[in-house]
Amino acid sequence: RTWREGEPPLVKGCLPFLGKAVEFSQDALKLLTQLQSTHGDIFTVLIAGRYMTFVMNPLLYPAVVKHGRQLDFHVFTDTVAPPTFGYPPIRSGAYPGLPDRIQSSFQLLQGDQLTRLSHSMLGNLLATLRHHFLGVGPGQREAGPDWQKVGSGREMGLYALCESLMFQASVLTLYGTHNRTHSPGVLEELRRKFSQFDARFPLLVGGMPIWLLARTNALRGELIRHFDPRSMQQWDGPSDFIRTRVQLLNEYPLTDVEKGAHHFAILWASVGNTIPAAFWVIYHLLAYPEAFAAVKSEIQEVLGIKGEGLSLNDDLTLTPEDLDRMIYLESAVCESLRLSSASMNVRVCQEDFEMRLDSQRSVHLRKDDIIALYPQSMHMDPDIYPQPEVYKFDRFVLGSARRSEFFKRGQRLHYFLMPFGSGGSKCPGRFFALVELKQLVCVLLLYCRLELAHTHTHTHTPPKLDTARAGLGILPPKTDIAVCYALLCTEKNEEGRGGGQGENEKKERGEGENKKKEREAEGENEIKDRLAMKEGLVNSPEE
Ligand code: HEM
């Protein structure tokens, strides 16, 4: 291929076919930043046989997003997802109407259904916490045998802790309970298999045929079997989202394995990014005491909880309005997503056309080329985020409100935080993901005492991002990091404080709850305004 007048600069590298594939897989952000400094805001690179045009300046992102017709997202996913998860491409014409109906099913992750999902997720997070870490099974109210052990503190990897909690609570919320998976041992087994499959995920997405990875192929088969039609009948109380998808897939001539593979793909989508995101959100709060203190006191203030926190016997209610009032919590979550997300937004050019970038510039693009945005470069741009490598929990707060205006070269950005993609390919689970992450913080901070095992401050070296997954979403840490954890308030502690004090605390809590109700009544309009603003964070206004 040779460069033509009007096209973006072309970088072919020295290696035939591979082009810049090696550098890209080693450190995509570094390569793209170097190319940007030489070739400017937009350039085309040969990567493993594909010509990929990167638009690096976030002020130009709207130009790409608005060309949804010429720049199609699903052509790409329909090439990558089917061989990775094991179902046939759905846009081949063999399944008329299926792609649109699948898109419609994503509505069930939002709106009113989101409230139901959130309610169920919180219950499952608490049940999982009680069961696995504190020795109390779902539905049980009494302390189990591990109570004392936990009361005196335990140590484990923070990633392992987040993975276990988020995986189990997410599976229970989306798929329901399974007569065999009632036993947490079975869910744990499912998680282990999932995590082994996930370790090979970058290779599969990179195009390696699964038959070359015999163990991964076998694992995928086992994972799919958990979700084939016969197994799905044994899941009790699935979410409306999963129930609808089961009915939908049954209407099409798919084999049982192919149906199971679709459900398995949703499992990956729902936890593959949420688990590493949970790790970074909690890690940053533990590493930065001022962030921890501000977020915890905000949570307690909004929920009207006095004292250290809650005991296991206390239940927790978190309405969407409660979460919405927690602007420091939301900012802390966004800041962790900014620092850890490295998803690539990919589109396939459907025809030769001229894409207008701004009032002065346009470029020629060729049919079948890939157009990509790499928002990690925006997230780490010092012009937009001063000291971009530093964690600042309140970066997304301005005064006493959410901050939703960010600028580059003095111009306001339409897109400033893009962990969830953009335009037509935007993650349909983004609202649920934010709720899950906030709920996890509330649960851990209110019920547990958590500390990094080896230091109490951020002066230690933070874990590095595992760049092997660059382009695929939230990057996990290269290594896990140990945390000590214990219950904040054990029954024993409460007794120790004496009945009178316990009564006072209950009274104070009651007063706090009354205050909360008064605020709820007063603030409804204010909440609506804030919700509208929050939409700016997860959904750009023009979409
Ligand atoms: C922090 C958590 C999450 C992050 C960062 C994230 C990010 C993303 C991104 C970037 C995409 C677009 C992929 C692309 O452009 O190629 C995507 C797609 C998707 N996500 Fe998420 N996601 C998260 C959580 C969730 C959750 C909790 C669910 C569901 C319960 C979910 C369901 C999906 C689905 C179904 C798609 C495919 C959409 C389509 O094919 O049109 N995600 N996600």
TrEMBL record:
Its cofactor is heme. GO terms for biological process: steroid metabolic process. Keywords: Heme, Iron, Lipid metabolism, Metal-binding, Signal, Steroid metabolism. The keyword GTP-binding does not apply. GO terms for molecular function: metal ion binding. Coiled coil: none annotated. Gene3D superfamilies: Cytochrome P450 (1.10.630.10). InterPro entries: CYP450_sterol_14alpha_dmase, Cyt_P450, Cyt_P450_E_grp-IV, Cyt_P450_sf. Transmembrane segments: none annotated. Belongs to the cytochrome P450 family. This is Uncharacterized protein.
